[in-house]
Amino acid sequence: MGVRPSDRAGDTLLRGLCATAAVAVIAVMVDIAYQVLHGSHQALSKFGLGFLVHTTWRPNFDVFGAGSFLYGTIVSSLMALLIATPLAIAIALYLSLMAPRGVRSIVGSLVEMLAAVPSVVIGFWGILVLSPFVRDHLEPWLHGAFGFIPLFGPPQTTGSSTFTAGLILTIMVIPIIASVSRDLFDTVPQELQDGAAALGATRWEIVRGVILPSTASGVAAAAFLGLGRALGEAIAVTQVIGAGTGIHASLFATGDTLASRVANEFAGATSTLHTAAIFYAAAILLVIGLSTNLFAQWIGRRFDPSRLVAR
Amino acid sequence: MTRSSTDGSADLEAVTAVLPRIRIGGERRAPAAAAASPSVAAVPREVVFQARGVGVSYGEKRAIAGVDLDIPRNLVTAIIGPSGCGKSTFLRSLNRMNDTVPGFRLDGQVLYHGHDVYGPGVDRVEVRRRIGMVFQKPNPFPKSIYDNVAWAPRNLGLREGLDARVERALRGAALWDEVKDRLKDSALGLSGGQQQRLCIARAIAIEPDVLLLDEPASALDPIATLAIEELMHTLKQRYTIVIVTHNMQQAARVADRTAFFSLDVSGSDRVGTLVEYDTTEMIFTRPADTRTRDYVTGRFG
Amino acid sequence: MSTTEVDFTAPLVATGNLRRRHRVSRAAEGLALGSSVAAVAVLGIIVAYVVVHGAGALSLDFLTKEPSPGGGPGGGIAPAIVGTGLLVGVATVIAMPIGVLVAVYLTEFAGPAAARPIRLALDLLNGLPSIVVGLFVFGLLVVGKHQSGFAAAFALSIIMLPLIARSTQEMLGLVPRQLREAADALGVSRWRTVLTVVLPSAAGGIVTGTVLAVARAAGETAPLIFTSSIFGNRVTLDLLGTPIPNIPVQIFTLSETPDPSGYERAWGAAFVLLSFILVANIGARALLTRSRKKMGR
């Protein structure tokens, strides 16, 4: 019995359509990289890698350096990661191991809801609620207690600061790290946990001795995903960081990040070199974003739940 | 595989070397070496566990009901019966491993040295520290061989002489000679039988009072099974052992006492019950109950 | 020689260092609970602010009127609401078929060698900062021309595509093998199987993924800021010719002005946006649970 010609045509058509769509996805990804690099060409040839370290950004004089933005990006994201990772792991442990059934699904959904709040809304809330609170309470207190550390310098009057941006980013990456970590903790076989419990271990000892070590690489990957998100967040950061220039030791000074600067220049570029400089900043973001993502995947691949179980 | 007698006595030495000074009622008592002889049924023995009308349900479903059973010290007590008869459920309720199962409820009493295991104020972690357990499927931690054994002692703060403790435990589980040169290697690289002996070593490293073995050889090949069975003969000098097995020959080979559980089917309800409990010899040669006889003679699946 | 000296016949209460270990464990558990409470509290605080302030701004006029001329007090955000709907709608029309086709290609046709680069591209797209996507479309469609609704919708579709593809693929993976084999055994051709058996049984998942992607796209600001941010008060259907008003950029620009009446309107707009997004999320979750159940998982 032969295949009907209409069926053969249908199969070819469907496969062709699907393959085209798949190729389109790859093409878009490649084209994004191309466009961004291409757009930055003029700035790249003029400033070279010095763009990464020079801290002057003066569109009116056609002088561009993204050093302070790069610094602000790294500082705010690292701060977010340092606060968010332990909190997110704690949340994931609660959800995976401690929470009663009903609570688990409700709290789990709520934490994921936090990820769904648009960044522009979080940023707006940051301007009107978080910034004043940080300025009036958190920063003075930290300055008073730890002022001898340069990081905690005198608070600024506006409340816009790298510190506030770091807190906003913390809120944004917690749900990402928490939900990935929770899924990881769920993969730790019950038999391993039972084995530890049967040795007279407390819940925390089971977590520290069995659950965290067996999922460590996966959790690290989750943290890197969070880092990628924090590095690339533009809108919410723009709203609260204060668009400062220069590199300051104090977290309480205003600052700027690459993504935030790019978003800020939407009103229009003053010259083609200005446009190219914006693209250059985006190109750095692209490279950082792609490499954190690839790195997260690479570590993540080293985590294989089946390795945890004896054969 | 048969083990030469010198091997066996080496293990025996390893085990007796770590015999604890256990105080019972203030008086120090060395474990009786004579305990191993088979004709001890008549001798009154110290009782470790007393199950009094124990029933277990998970939600609406009753798993076992009305189990009365005394488990004596320094003997191997086997629990046999068809699958689904609640053997493992009973075993796991001795050290409260069922607590985390949703809907778990226990009726009656499990007394351990006279104390209600489920009584108010009982510390579950302490219960498991005294009553160790080895599971059906070997479940070594994804750590090195050394760290598998050293993990629980470290938790308990037994850091002094840890290397010696690990070695004793591994010798006690008849694994030392096979792994002494690769203690830093991952435990997951061991064979199934070695992994299971590692789990036994892990359990005895903190010198518990009782070892609960839940079908410890069911996932192993015959040679590894034999190694585990031989191990039990030496271990019981030091520990009280309760073993669940679906393998009748195994029970006959290793156990001093045997309890036969069966499924009581009334209507749609199937509940595990204790049918008969006696010396292993009696259970296998002159069982009192016809259901036991049918089971041990293979007339019942 | 360190042998443990435990009196096994003692009552079953903590011995040795166990009391201290329990304290450590309880402290850790307390921190875990506390962190979870804190995360939920932050969500609660943000939502509460948006609801309390937003409800104050809300009125029928706010939802149905155009902004008052010159950006003064009064007026509504109707064009932004309609515009966001339009942009997200067009983005969905672009992203959904491509996303589903890619997922079908991955599960039905591609061998491991072909699947790898596609999966990688999807993952990378998903992890790309959305401002980069915005700038990409800016360079592709806006530079030398002008902002347009289509450029904005295209940028949003790039955000949506990996989300739809991934959730569809997950759902297709759950379609029982037997269904496909049964169809094969009956001599049904591949394309008929896909269209009549595989896709319909994964429909719930596809819809869920799309709704979640829509919710995500509706709140995205960064891709729009270069593509549809300088808009008037009119939504036109001339997508290629004019930028389209939309809620996220509206909130963004209002939040950047120091005008308190602007803040009130921004809260109102945030309320509208957040309600839509949260309802869509809850709905999608409920749908996912139902369709998972239907597939026997």
Description:
The complex is a heterotrimer of chains A (311), B (301) and C (297). Chain A has 311 residues and is an all-alpha fold. In chain A, strands 1-2 form a two-stranded antiparallel ribbon. Chain A has helices at residues 5-39, 41-47, 67-98, 101-116, 119-146, 162-187, 190-197, 203-232, 235-241, 258-264, 272-302; strands at 57-58, 63-64. Chain A contains eleven helices and two strands, in the order ααββααααααααα. The two termini of chain A are 46 Å apart. With 301 residues, chain B is α/β, with parallel strands linked by helices. Chain B has a single domain, classed as Rossmann fold (3-Layer(aba) Sandwich). In chain B, helix 1 (5-17) crosses helix 8, helix 4 (145-155) runs parallel beside helix 7 (192-204) and helix 7 runs parallel beside helix 8. Chain B is globular and about 55 Å long. The relative contact order of chain B is 0.18. The radius of gyration of chain C is 26 Å and the shape is flat. Classes of the chains: A mainly alpha (311), B alpha/beta (301), C mainly alpha (297).
The biggest sheet of chain A, with number of strands, parallel, antiparallel or mixed sense and barrel status, is: 2 strands, antiparallel
Main CATH class of chain B: Alpha Beta
CATH superfamily descriptor of chain A? MetI-like
Broad CATH class of chain A: Mainly Alpha
- Oligomeric status: heterotrimer
Report the CATH topology name of chain B. Answer: Rossmann fold
Q: What's the helical proportion of residues of chain B? A: 25-40%
Structural class of chain A: mainly alpha
Beta fraction of chain B: 25-35%
Q: Find the CATH superfamily of chain B.
A: P-loop containing nucleotide triphosphate hydrolases
The CATH architecture of chain B can be given as 3-Layer(aba) Sandwich
Estimated helix fraction of chain A: over 70%
Strand order of the largest sheet of chain B: 8-9-10-5-11-12
Number of strand segments of chain B: 12
Keywords (chain B): ATP-binding, Nucleotide-binding, Translocase, Transport
InterPro entries (chain B): AAA+_ATPase (IPR003593), ABC_transporter-like_ATP-bd (IPR003439), ABC_transporter-like_CS (IPR017871), P-loop_NTPase (IPR027417), PstB-like (IPR005670)
Organism (chain B): Paraconexibacter antarcticus
Protein name (chain B): Phosphate ABC transporter ATP-binding protein PstB
